[in-house]
UniProtKB/TrEMBL annotation:
Pfam families tied to this protein: Thiolase_C, Thiolase_N
Similarity-based family: Belongs to the thiolase-like superfamily. Thiolase family.
SUPFAM superfamilies: Thiolase-like
GO MF, any single term: acetyl-CoA C-acyltransferase activity
Entry-linked CDD domains: thiolase
Domain annotation Thiolase N-terminal: ranges: 5-247
Cross-referenced PROSITE patterns: THIOLASE_2
Entry-linked InterPro entries: Thiolase (IPR002155), Thiolase-like (IPR016039), Thiolase_C (IPR020617), Thiolase_CS (IPR020613), Thiolase_N (IPR020616)
Keyword Transferase appears in the UniProt entry: yes
Protein name per its UniProtKB record: Acetyl-CoA acetyltransferase
Matching PANTHER family: ACETYL-COA C-ACYLTRANSFERASE, BLR7806 PROTEIN
Species the sequence originates in: Planotetraspora thailandica
Keywords: Acyltransferase, Transferase
Gene3D superfamilies assigned: 3.40.47.10
Length: 377
């Protein structure tokens, strides 16, 4: 099988709800990232064979195949097509998988994998028909019953199953903010960010947050453990990567920065919804012939604090190597953009620290997960 290489990775800052990016049209937000990717890699954009872009709420300003529209909005060649992918929160990580698979199969040589979401402009849940709020059919109900299926309930179920106290969840959230604030202060993200609309840094981290302030917040559900402080933030952002074959690297004078080692997927209980990173990680490590001790940096999306905490407990990973610069609780989670943003962060952190292997995973609606393992070159 042919190798697939990451030769470029860039992202916008992640803007907070009603923040500095909230007025930027999502097509323009994604177009900015695509332009930055082309500029930074120096690739001939006409040589790109496809643009695969993750986006979850594909309605209104994010409808009509935003991948294609963003490429055209960036002023890039009309000859390059684009396709938009929805695997819920893992949409742009799946875009990376599709791009890598195209290269590994030998049917493509140069593919852009990207993601975008403007949650300020297209709120979460916009794609659900209001007079039909339960989006499942009779056969689904026969299997799982007429019960609440939400990420909020899933997070509470995880906290209960793994016996994670509210205090433990809040300690994790506090650490996420502290790590993110330190990373920004030290300039760790500067090289990977393409500033836009006057925003240069991620807007989400709250370095002045305290455990005492978190303890005062109301839980999202009566008698629950999850609060806004232990949940990912509503955000706006975009990321993009260029995936190339060995032939494309030679033909276009590109520099491989990482090799895609393995790609894995898993499904798990759709009611718990958020647990699939655990079996997906086990599958990916086995396929790669690696142990968790071989992984130098982990990016696991902090949809809610129970997700990384349960994963850490089950996988036995090093907490210091896991989301070392904070995660979505502090930095935000622009749904379809997060996979590409996390991979950009993962690659740059491996380069900054000299690590060899990186692993990325995230929970996704329907009880699914992607895992990507890369090797820095």
């Amino acid at each position: 099988m042919a190798e697939a290489y990451i030769v470029g990775a860039v992202r916008t800052p992640v803007g907070k709800k009603k923040g500095g990016l909230s007025a930027v049209h999502p097509t323009d937000l994604a177009a900015h990232t695509l332009s930055a990717l082309v500029e930074r890699t120096g690739v001939d954009p006409a040589a790109v064979e496809d643009v695969v872009m993750g986006c979850v709420m594909q309605v209104g300003p994010q409808s009509l195949d935003i991948a294609r529209n963003a490429w055209l909005s960036a002023g890039l060649p009309e000859s390059v097509p684009g396709v938009t992918v929805d695997r819920q929160c893992g949409s742009s990580q799946q875009a990376i998988h599709f791009a890598a698979q195209g290269v590994m199969s030998g049917t493509q040589d140069l593919v852009v994998a990207a993601g975008v979401e403007s949650m300020s402009i297209v709120p979460m849940g916009s794609s659900i028909v209001k007079d039909m709020p339960f989006p499942f059919g009779e056969k689904w109900v026969e299997r799982y019953g007429m019960q609440e299926i939400t990420q909020f309930r899933g997070a509470e179920l995880m906290a209960e199953k793994w016996n994670l106290s509210r205090e433990e969840l809040e300690r994790y959230a506090y650490e996420s903010h502290q790590r993110a604030a330190k990373a920004i202060a030290n300039g760790y993200f500067k090289e990977q960010i393409a500033p836009i609309a006057g925003v240069e840094d991620d807007e989400g981290p709250r370095p002045d947050s305290t455990l005492e302030k978190m303890a005062e917040l109301r839980t999202l559900r009566p008698d629950g453990r999850i609060t806004a402080a232990t949940s990912s933030q509503i955000s706006d952002g975009s990321g993009a990567l260029l995936i190339a074959s060995e032939q494309a690297v030679r033909d276009h004078g590109l520099t491989p920065r990482a090799r895609i080692v393995t790609l894995a997927l898993a499904g798990d209980d759709p009611v718990y919804m958020l647990t699939a990173p655990i079996p997906a990680t086990r599958k990916a490590l086995k396929r790669a012939g690696l142990g968790i001790e071989d992984i130098d940096v982990v990016e696991i999306n902090e949809a809610f604090a129970p997700v990384p905490l349960a994963w850490l407990r089950e996988i036995g990973a090093d907490p210091q190597k896991t989301n070392p610069n904070g995660g979505a609780i502090a930095l935000g989670h622009p749904l379809g953009g997060t996979g590409a943003i996390l991979m950009t962060k993962l690659l740059h952190e491996l380069e900054r620290t000299g690590g060899r292997y990186g692993l990325q995973t995230m929970c996704e609606g329907g009880g699914q997960a992607n895992v990507t393992v890369i090797e820095r070159l």
